[in-house]
Amino acid sequence: MNAYYQLINTQTADDGSVTTFYKSTDHAQGAWNTHEQHMAPASGVMAREMENFQPRDDMRIGRISFDIFGLIPAGEFSITTRVIRPGRTIELIESEMQAQGKTCIVARAWRMATQNSSAVAALEDPAVHHPDTLPAWQGISHWPGGYIKSLEAKIAENHRDGKGIVWLNNSLEMVENFTTSDFVHLIGMVDTANGTAPRQGSNITWAFPNLDLQIHLHRYPSGQWLGLETVQQYGEDGIGLTSAILHDEQGPFGRSEQILTLRKLG
């Protein structure tokens, strides 16, 4: 199997909503539990549904917000996508993943009208070293699970506990027998930011699963390599935050945030 998911069936309802049925493969296996999916490919397959749902040439996705309701079971699941706020210049769509009779993830994406704004375009986030210039990184391999095993990782200088730059890629399709767009390929790795610069290093005594994933895109990404310029911070009352500047091989294209629930192990 050379993909994270298998497509089973697709149904379109009278109200225009689309439900697609999938089955996860071992490549989508999570790092915290063997019987769950990793949020990264799960968000990738949901991004695929949103990208393909009633596409419009004059709009693109500018923000995706994923709320994680709990453990994402491995195996069969469905994703239902609908428009919840239609419009000419802004449009809000929603995708809901369900498995074993329960909601696992709810994602909402703003689609925004595009126009030529090159006359005022400006960025504050600088580009970082291209992945071709960096060494391979084995540090991510201390995390278990099929998803982590599917990744190729490279690391930049000055990486330390709680902060650093890591580039990721994988050779898998998101869905078996379907070509994966660059957008889906890259969005399907963003959630990995939470494990690329853990503040505790490799001696983890507190778990730090994220409850959400927020992605803001000032540019539509392209290419195969995802750069994560990550900072992880812990508060004093059991809540933390992982923040990342997102890069492709052309430069920065957006940012992500993940709220963390800190849980002492043992």
Structure, explained:
By secondary structure, this protein is mainly beta. The chain has one domain (about 5-115, about 130-265): Acyl-CoA thioesterase, double hotdog domain (Porin), CATH 2.40.160.210. The chain is about 10% helix and about 45% strand. The protein is built from four helices and 15 strands. The strands form two sheets. It has a 13-stranded mixed sheet. Strands 10-15 form a two-stranded antiparallel ribbon. The longest helix has 14 residues, at about 40-50. It is globular. The two termini are about 35 Å apart.
Secondary-structure map with pairings?
Elements: E1 3-12, E2 18-24, H1 39-52, E3 59-68, E4 76-85, E5 90-99, E6 102-113, H2 146-149, E7 151-155, E8 163-170, E9 173-175, H3 182-190, H4 193-196, E10 206-207, E11 212-217, E12 226-234, E13 239-248, E14 251-261, E15 263-264
Parallel strand pairs: 1-9
Antiparallel strand pairs: 1-2, 2-4, 3-6, 3-11, 4-5, 5-6, 7-8, 8-12, 10-15, 11-14, 12-13, 13-14
Helix pairs in contact: 1-3
Domain Acyl-CoA thioesterase-like C-terminal: 133-260
Domain Acyl-CoA thioesterase-like N-terminal HotDog: 30-112
Protein name: Thioesterase
